[in-house]
Amino acid sequence: MLVMAQSNYVAFELELEENWQQLIMVDLNGDGAKDIAHSHYQPGIGRELHIYYQSPDGSFDSTPRRIEIKTEIIAVGFADLREEPGKELLLFANSGVFSLSSAIEGYAGNIKQLLQWDLVATIPNLEQVQFIENIIDIDGDGHIDLLLPGDEVFGFFKGDGAENFELISSFSTTNKSIPQSQRGGNRGGIDANISINPEQGLVVNLSRDSTSPYSDFIEQWTEEESETRTLLRSESWMPSAILAQLNDDKLLDVIYLNVGDDGLGQLNIHYQNPQTGFSETADWTGSMETRGDIQLADMNQDQQVDLLRISGNGNDWDARFFKNQNGKFNLEQPDQIMRFSGYDVRLSFPQIEDEGAPVLNVSYYTIPIVDAIRNASINRISLLYGSDASETGQLFNRRPDTRLEDSFSAANVRGLAEQMSLDYDIDGDGVKDALYITANGTLAAKRIDEHLGVADQPFWEYISARTVFEFEVLNLNTDQYPDLLLKHANTTTLLVASP
Amino acid sequence: MSNSKQFCKNLFLFLVFCLPVYLSLNPLSAAELAFTQQAFQFPAETENLLIVDTNGDGLQEIISVVDDTLRIYFQNANGFDFDAGYDKLQFPGEAIGWDVSMAYNSAQPNSASIIALIDGKEVLVWRIKDQAIQNPEVIKTSLNGFLTKGTNRLHFSRDVNGDGIDDLIIPGAGVLNLHIRTSDQNSQPEYQPGLSVRSDIRMRTRLNSNQLERRTGQSIRIPMMNLRDVNGDGFDDLISRTDERLDVFIAAQSAERYFPALPSYSLDIAEIEERLGEVDIDNLDFSNLTGLLSLTHEEILEDVDGDGIEDLLLREGGKVSLYGGTAEGMNFDQPRQVLRSGGNVLSTFLMDENEDGLKDLWLWRVEPISVGDIFIWLALSGSIAVEAFIYPNEGERFSRRPNRKLTINLKFPSIIRLATSFSKIADEVQEDNTDTSIPLTTARLDATLAADDLLVIVNNQIEIFLNAIQVDSDQEEGSGEILSSLNYSRERDNYEINIREIIENISINGNTLLEQVDGQSADITLALNTELVVGDIIPAQLNNDELDDVFVFTDTDSSHISGILLLSN
Predict the structure, then answer these.
(1) Where does the record locate the signal sequence feature (chain B) (predicted)?
(2) What ipTM score was computed for the predicted complex, to two decimals?
(3) In whole angstroms, what is the distance from residue A5 CA to residue B188 CA?
């Protein structure tokens, strides 16, 4: 069914002290419409969760419902745990997890301890609530489960749907067979030493940071130094365990990157076992180069997560693609390497059409030097690579199917606020659209055709009273019409489609 | 493990590690330096070693902490016995903040005690007698502290009021609780009521990540209290600066409470920020982006009128207000002076310009910068003029008008060129990993103070270059340093900083230390009989000869950190 992009929205403008803080869209009262939740702090009162409930007409309450977040709470998540409609709050303290309904006033007779667990974080930020997102059904039994970072291990808790959780397995993402001093994966940054002398003025000396695990190992105590030091400095970190579908059993597995016995990067995978959860040691490991930016993405739309490493600097970048081979990777030989010249190179893998072929979207900036005096500008390049003519074993075509170039100068600088996004279908026709911020700071969309061509002119534009800097397309209710979140400099606008 | 098995194990370790090392580390040159060599092993989980004298004999001990257990390796005339020559204590509780302090063992001067805050609630001290850790003494209970789980260094015992007795600084929830000790070291510890001061705690927590390279966990940094004498009475006052407030607590040595329960004076920084307003991009003047500087503010506590009491210089955009400090606080009734400057005021600082002993006001302005300028600078070089207006100090206040203007022309290449240059330099630094992987250090192995010695591990031997490294003299700091970089003089008003020249002159140090001994032969060479797997060399002063001793780390595996200690004879 073709649904035209909306021109009518119910707008709700939210003005927060910290406009760029995280907003959680979650249905807390079970009416099928997502409400807005955010952290709030006021001296003398402390931390609160502010909730703006959505009404059936798409508007939001003008004043928030306020829930006190007690000082012991380190983080808050949301999941449907109780029989009552809507999601409950999950409260993470340093030694346990609790549930709390937002529908019941206060904590008494409301809060329930779900499990005991020593969380990796032990001190709450008393001015801000940390949110834990993606609390999901991990084992596919229809009930919410939890993968929790703890004291040196991650714990996998299975839920039974009645607020009971059982620790099934735990594993460490830290390689304990190497000394603690080497576990951080010290790659040796650059140490800059700026000195000043009257003859040469400012002199900059650069050298590699020491990669020695003993560089801060010995401290000679002196009374004077002790008095000027930081009162407390404490660090407790471990490689993040990421849930992703890595093999063909439809169960979520765990992947993480740590330091191997050889001191190099090591990719680790624990496959999920329906009965025993995750094994204590990794089921598969592979040594990998960790320079650059490593990302997980389903590049070939086979529902298994692949691996991408982007490395380089300045305006020369290499992207190396590693295809998932049913839960394993050949990390010595990338399946495809692509090179790009530009600044701020970003890759994404939008699914332009439902059931469509894989597509690679590359965007970056170039700066034309010729003609700079007459017309100084910056160009934004967007490349779309299809996969219909890719070589055997490779993922994407060697040459882009589409190349878009937008030029920005002082006159249209607002359009640079965010890169063009191909992740959203604004008109609900089953094909993703190219959403972008215009030179006037409004949001507009162009159509993408079956050959990955992007239309010259937008078919839709939302003109807001304030400049848009960020946007997101959401489904804030049960209708099929896309809703929008627009971030301005000091406020946020939520637009719920009103056909 | 039985005693006989332990003995056999120790004997084996001695034979495997100590004996070969002793045999192989005899100096190969004729130099007179001599060391006693001892092999060491620490548990692999050891995060660091603290060197301190715990029993007042002038010989430093080595303290290591693994999990909740602290070990002290005692030193005697023969050095250390790393296998059995230690005592240990197990901290109670789950959240431990520990430190060492010289203030808790009056019976044995100059000896450090171990002091620990347990679960934020009580403070215990362990004194050391000879080579044994004594039972703990409870120093303070019923505290309302907040600590991270695990065992961490916490510098919480220090003399705040200058009476020679350590007080306690207990981290709480968003605050620091200060407990001033009223009793002397020989008496039962007694403290004044706690003073709670807001603290600018820096915290980073990440509990769920979907990015492979990001780690999960938490880091916390609590800055030390800022203590200095602001009213010139000889006693340190307490300055608390957070994003919202500046609070100053004036010390009263003879009062019942050293610090008052409420600040002697405060500045509401949040209110200043609210008054100045926030960035409104919709109404931003793209032709003068530097106009945003009108939203900035500065608070400087310094003595302007030379009476020994710090005054307050408050800059809000281009408005500078001077408030006079008093012995009791700050006279906020009326500013002593208000100066207003047009243009884009970047910053202010106080420094004596005319050499009359009084600090003059330097007000820095920057020319308007537009979005168009930034686009041009992407591809072409440019320059920005920064001007300093100097308002001479007339005693009570500054002159109403500046008597001197400096202009600094900041020249820079295009942003593309800058990015390319930095990327090339970063590549060169990263590729130049040959020298930086060579373990080396400077140390003072002989009595020559003018130059340091260089120790390098090459080809499984330690090469020592005596007096090869010149000791740097101290450099000027702060605003004086900035001016000296310009080759500043009172006779010259126009200066230039050329970023292109600075980049062209960036030196990439393979290793400047090695360059200083290039082509020279080592004065002493010591052969290492052990293969260097994960090696490093670190100096420390352990015995009482005022010369450096040297830790040579040779290997680290899943169970131990191993190496050789060279104790200077």
Answers:
(1) 1-30
(2) 0.90
(3) 78
